[in-house]
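Entry for the shared binder. Reason: the reviewer on the internal report wants the predicted structure included alongside the sequence.
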Amino acid sequence: MRYKLISKGINPPKVLFNSGTNTVKIFDTVEEANRMKDELNDITLDDVHWEVAPLNAEGNPQE
């Protein structure tokens, strides 16, 4: 299964994209996704935080 990151704390939630592109950042393992989630959550200064979701989860029109 592949994974993506979804921001929480904003409406509507946003999906993490590859830098400078309109392509969703895809992780091949949950471990990779969790590492990136932890990095992003460590540097976030507002109420937004990131969560791991299966790539086929609802709410991502770019899949």
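Summary line for the report: Helices lie at 30-43.
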